[in-house]
Amino acid sequence: MKPLISVIVPIYKVEKYLTICVDSLLRQSYGNLEIILVDDGSPDECPAICDQYQNKDNRIKVIHKKNGGLSDARNAGLDIAQGEYVAFVDSDDFIDEDYICKLYDALQQNRASIAVCGIQIIDESNKVTEQICVTQDKKQELYTGREIIKKELQGEWVLVTAWGALYDAKIFKELRFPCGRHYEDEYVFVSVFENQECVVCIPENIYYYLQRADSIMGVTYKKQDCMDYFEMWHERIDYFQTKEDRELLAPVIQSCLAWNVLYLAMNGQVMEEPEKRLLKKDIRKYFWKIFAKPYLYNLKENMKLAVKCVMVLMNDKSLGKRYV
Predict the structure, then answer these.
(1) Cβ contact 10:39 at 8 Å
(2) Together in a domain, 156 and 303
(3) Residue 104 in 3-state DSSP?
(4) Which range marks the domain in which residue 280 is found?
(5) pLDDT tens sequence across 123-179
(6) Residue 37: enclosing H or E segment and its boundaries?
(7) Are 311 and 274 a contacting pair, CB within 8 Å?
(8) What is the CATH number of the domain that holds 60?
(9) 133 and 148 in contact (C-beta within 8 Å)?
(10) Do 237 and 263 belong together in one domain?
């Protein structure tokens, strides 16, 4: 018998989408599933919908808890998960019927600890607006976890998400998502991937991500978003500095600078002065490092980044228009 796989679904105010999500889980061609629906204190009909599904299928477990946010809901699911492997699916998204099967088969064939697939981004009318593939060609690709981290830091890896992947449950034996933070996936990304000897990427785009206008990714500037991202980058820098990991410290500093520039260019007109000063101070702190060893590894790209740094420090508005 194939091993048990736990699928954790955090749920909050998604009654319009929840049945589509759960039905896609129940239709999986891989049958040995434990589907954990975590009602995060949802004030709508979601709690009742969860209970109805639990009564219909014994693979479904329901947790009702006080609202604590996405991270807290995922952590609650991890605390009771019994599977040898674990997957995360957001409650307004859905998956292809062979999603679990294809990811599991890729893990087994390559003795990998993480399998990742591409995604299809859809709008509210179920129209596909974008497809993101995690391979260059229509074949599997293998990486170490550190190679994935380096690709992400250099802008060659865009799916810094908990969903869209199947994990060996041992990865989350001690690891949990940070509560009270937006972009929680960014915070655990390094911890998830760093020690993995084999990560397999499959060419199929079989996770369907709903881009809602009211989602975290769809809202305008918020101070908490800015500070959460700022702290995430500095946690990464401190982590690699402490380890004296020069290979990854260089790209993480460059990525931090690039993020500061992008954020100021896009949101500088509406940001409060303390946050603007904080990001500009950070740019000045790390600016010269990108021209010194071991941080310098691509002079052309570093020169482009340096020009952008100067532009935002001088409050040049043209850069923001270019990004838009």
Answers:
(1) no
(2) no
(3) helix
(4) 220-323
(5) 988 899 999 999 988 899 999 999 999 999 888 887 899 999 999 999 999 999 999
(6) strand 33-40
(7) no
(8) 3.90.550.10
(9) no
(10) yes
